[in-house]
Design goal:
The complex is a heterodimer of chains A (313) and B (354). Chain A is an alpha/beta fold and 313 residues long. Chain A has helices spanning 5-10, 27-38, 50-55, 75-91, 110-115, 118-127, 177-182, 197-209, 223-226, 233-242, 268-273, 287-312; strands at residues 42-47, 66-70, 103-109, 132-137, 188-192, 214-219, 249-252, 255-258. Chain A has a single domain (5-311), classed as Thiamin diphosphate (ThDP)-binding fold, Pyr/PP domains (Rossmann fold, 3-Layer(aba) Sandwich), CATH 3.40.50. In chain A, a hairpin with a 2-residue loop joins strand 7 (249-252) and strand 8 (255-258). The longest helix of chain A has 26 residues, at 287-312. The mean pLDDT of chain A is 96. Chain B is 41% helix and 19% strand. Chain B has helices at 8-18, 33-45, 56-68, 79-84, 86-94, 121-125, 143-160, 170-174, 214-234, 254-269, 287-294, 310-318, 337-348; strands at 3-7, 23-26, 49-52, 73-77, 99-105, 136-138, 163-169, 176-180, 238-241, 248-251, 274-279, 281-283, 299-304, 324-328. The mean pLDDT of chain B is 96. The chains are: A alpha/beta (313), B alpha/beta (354). The A-B interface holds A 48, 69, 71-73, 111, 114-116, 118, 141, 143-145, 147-148, 150, 159-162, 164, 166-167 and B 26-30, 33, 36-37, 40-41, 44-45, 50, 52, 54-56, 80, 84, 110-111.
Chain lengths: 313, 354
């Protein structure tokens, strides 16, 4: 089941052009890459969020496969219902098209996943539905005007955690949702980015092949909310991995594998410097916040290395 | 007095701060997010707190907690988010906790759109959550009122120890107008008899809405009901324009009342004797003034951004004394002046929709 670029290019593109994603959006790229691997026998669920809004403006849909939208906090529950209906129909022999297996993929942004949708996600994972939940994580509520979420990193400026004279952007570190999903002891959990196409396609393939629920957390650099040039979204994604800010790793039945270990990790400040949301951190007096950010990344990386060593030891 | 050009949504925060509110809990949703943005900027600077919750349910329950401390507090959202807050509002009403909730109503049902509608009238004024309770509801029709009625909402919430709601829409929230900045009011805290603020003085208090014994829960409901009746008797707010000799009275609130207001003179220049009654409080509803008008007009016409919600309260007020017609647009469509004048003509000629 090794991923093959030639094969991927021959797969049907299931997200049609003409949708309304922003110039330089890396999110629509994530959706397309996932669907190249998943194929058309898939029901896609979308929580309210930018990717739902730009791909399904009524009466149009960019999806060439079944798509069901639900409220902000309920995508995992909705896909639980869809997947359960499939099993019920299969059991009673009433499937409209006889099939052994279908893919059920739920998409949510970080607001709809880390925050308001965490309860329904946790429930779906615990019940063991045969589904893949994908979080496209652009680290804030971009669709409603760039408000902070629990995925927003320390120091980032957002409209509800603004940088000014009193405060310097968000005052908390982001939540480690991927590890929360690992704690559900589901068959497959992984992190990736749209730049790492081979890694992404392999992870989608593994996630859809496993028996039970799977979770993918995909970093989605956002030109609007992170304030970088529309041309460099993929570069930002690549550097998030090279700085160890967003390590590529997977957890298969509890066993950690780090898929890429940078030979020399780049300083996090270099990556932050390219993004307007961190601009204020480079003013004199804020050096400590850059140091704190670096220390946080390094600490998390050390912990990840230990988890990998422990679970393989 | 200082004047400033601002959005209606920003004016809500000016009013809230002037009313002594110092704790804001929010969650992002268009077209209400500016209220949270303004709160995030101004509350911390004035010694208050702004917290973005992880969900609408958490935001209203943080409000419940702060209100329980006897401190003025608020949240704001838009229709789908307001739906999620209903359980919390029912608990606030049951536990008699004063707070202010703003609903910048958008198109529904479901995710709908972010354009103006008034289709949350039922869920706001009829007690959208469970149980016998009411939300004191104020409907501003401009930026100045977004400020002033927010202040008023805090006063009413405290007076009746009940949640109060500001019902507006995306136009009223986002259009910019000149606002006369209000004087900050001294807040007189009168919470020692019921709040739980961790001091010896409030140690005997209990905040809860569980009343297991039917006899006692009935008593509790009757106590709430007496409070609501007192509120209905004392707090109705409305405006009338050229109703003295009107043959047709239009009933409209919020952004629609602005449009209707501008059409009354137009219609009169064409010989149509039209007037406007504008409810400012939607609950308590101006039942008595509408009933009084019904005795001497040929007809009434409710104009709303819905398929017909407030019109039911107009009919309940009129009780058959005059025909009550309805004209509504929805989905974010807003009637224009010529469209409305044509409808007045139709109604006065004996047509119109009901």
């Amino acid at each position: 089941m090794a991923v093959n670029l030639k094969q991927l290019t021959q797969s049907e593109d299931l997200l049609a052009g003409g949708h309304r994603a922003c110039a330089g959006c890396t999110g629509s790229n994530i959706l397309r890459q996932i669907m190249l691997t998943a194929g058309p026998d898939t029901v896609v669920g979308g929580a309210t969020g930018c990717m739902e809004v730009v791909t399904t403006i009524f009466p149009y849909t960019a999806w060439k496969t079944s798509f069901i939208h639900s409220a902000f906090e309920n995508c995992a529950a909705t896909i639980s219902g869809v997947e359960t209906a499939f099993r019920a129909l299969k059991k009673s022999g009433e499937l409209p098209v006889a099939r052994e297996k279908m893919n059920f993929i739920a998409f949510g942004g970080d607001g709809g996943t880390y925050d308001i949708g965490l309860q329904s996600l946790s429930g779906a994972m615990e019940r063991g539905h045969n589904m893949l939940y994908v979080c496209y994580d652009n680290e804030a509520y971009m669709n409603t005007g760039i408000q902070r979420s629990s995925a927003t990193p320390l120091g980032a400026h957002t409209s509800t955690a603004p940088a000014g004279t009193v405060k310097q952007g968000k005052e908390q570190n982001r939540k480690d949702l991927t590890k929360i999903m690992v704690a559900h002891n589901i068959p497959y959990v992984a992190q990736t980015t749209p730049f790492h196409w081979k890694d992404l396609a392999t992870k989608v393939e593994k996630a859809l092949a496993c028996d039970g629920p799977a979770f993918l957390n995909i970093l989605m650099p956002c030109t609007v909310g992170w304030h970088f040039d529309t041309a460099i979204g993929m570069e930002i994604a690549r550097e998030a991995v090279e700085t160890n800010f967003w390590p590529l790793f997977e957890v298969e039945d509890g066993r950690y594998t780090i898929n890429h270990k940078p030979k020399e990790r780049a300083p996090i400040a270099d990556w932050m410097k390219k993004q307007g949301r961190f601009k204020h951190l480079f003013k004199p007096g804020n050096e400590h916040l850059l140091e704190t950010s670096q220390k946080y990344v390094d600490d998390q990386w050390e912990k990840l290395l230990k988890l990998e060593a422990m679970s393989n030891g | 007095m200082a004047r400033q050009f601002m959005k209606g949504n920003d004016a809500v925060i000016v009013g809230a701060l002037a009313a002594g509110c110092r704790a804001y809990y929010g969650y992002p949703i268009t077209p209400a997010s500016e209220i949270a943005h303004a709160a995030a900027l101004h509350f911390p600077a004035l010694g208050g707190v702004f917290i973005q919750a992880e969900s609408e349910v958490s935001a209203i329950n943080m409000v419940y907690g702060t209100a329980g401390m006897g401190i003025r507090t608020m949240t704001a959202s838009s229709s789908p988010g307001f739906s999620l807050k209903q359980e919390g509002l029912s608990y606030c009403a049951g536990a008699e906790l004063p707070c202010v909730v703003v609903n910048i109503v958008r198109g529904g049902p479901g995710l709908g759109n972010i354009a103006p509608e008034q289709a949350d009238y039922f869920q706001i004024t009829k007690g959208g959550g469970h149980g016998n309770y009411r939300l004191i509801t104020l409907a501003p029709n401009g930026a100045q009122e977004m400020c002033d009625l927010t202040m008023k909402a805090f006063a009413l919430a405290d007076k009746y120890r009940n949640p109060a709601c500001i019902m507006a829409d995306g136009i009223t929230g986002q259009m910019m107008e000149v606002v006369e900045l209000p004087k900050a009011l001294p807040v007189e805290r009168d919470h020692l008899g019921w709040a739980v603020d961790g001091t010896p003085a409030t140690r005997k208090n209990l905040i809860s809405s569980i009343v297991l014994e039917p006899v006692e829960l009935e008593e509790h409901n009757l106590k709430l009901d007496a409070k609501y009746k007192a509120c209905e008797a004392a707090e109705v707010l409305y405006e009338e324009y050229r109703t003295d000799d009107a043959e047709l009275v239009i009933v409209a609130y919020g952004v629609v009342s602005r449009i209707v207001y501008s059409t009354v003179d137009q219609a009169r220049s064409r010989g149509l004797k039209v007037g406007l009654l504008r409810p400012i409080t939607l609950w308590p509803f101006p039942t008595a003034p509408i009933r009084a008008l019904a005795g001497r007009v040929r007809a009434l016409l409710a104009v709303e951004l819905s398929t017909g919600q407030m019109v039911e309260d107009v009919r309940l007020a009129v009780e058959g004394r005059a025909p009550v017609h309805f004209y509504g647009r929805c989905g974010g469509m807003v009637p224009g002046g010529a469209e409305l004048v044509a409808e007045y003509e139709r109604v006065l000629a004996g047509g119109g929709q009901s």
